[in-house]
Please model this.
Amino acid sequence: MKLAKLVGVLTLPILLAVSGGAVAGDHGTAAEAKAMLDKAVAAVKADKAAALAQISKGEGGFKDRDLYPFCGGPDGNFTAHPKLIGQSMRGLMDKANPSFAVGEALYKAGDAGGGEVKYMWPMPTGGDPIAKIALVAKAGDQICAVGYYP
Model:
């Protein structure tokens, strides 16, 4: 029994070093992002104004760790986002490759019926940009997405 405890104590630092210190459950999964996107799309279709307000405030289950939906309207501006309402969603650029227009790719995916957009973005806690995937869908005249870090 003492040997098992010793092995556990010795392997924890190794596991944390290999995983970069991240603890399981710190980040949203692809399945959780998809479920949140589906919920956001249904809410926008049911009551656009109320849903966009809730999404922007992170209320009603629209904020979970690093997952949150965001939407853009026909004018290309954010209509729902924790910080960027009114700013250009179409003008959003990849943080590691400034020639990649993330916003344009989001609108293109939404207009095509939905899909994924892969890009580089910093974690909400900061740091260098890392791979992120936005799941995208159209809800009426809104393009909505939820991004996750794979």
Summary: The chain is about 35% helix and 25% strand. Residues 2-18 form the longest helix (17 residues). The beta strands are 69-72, 78-80, 115-123, 126-139, 142-148.
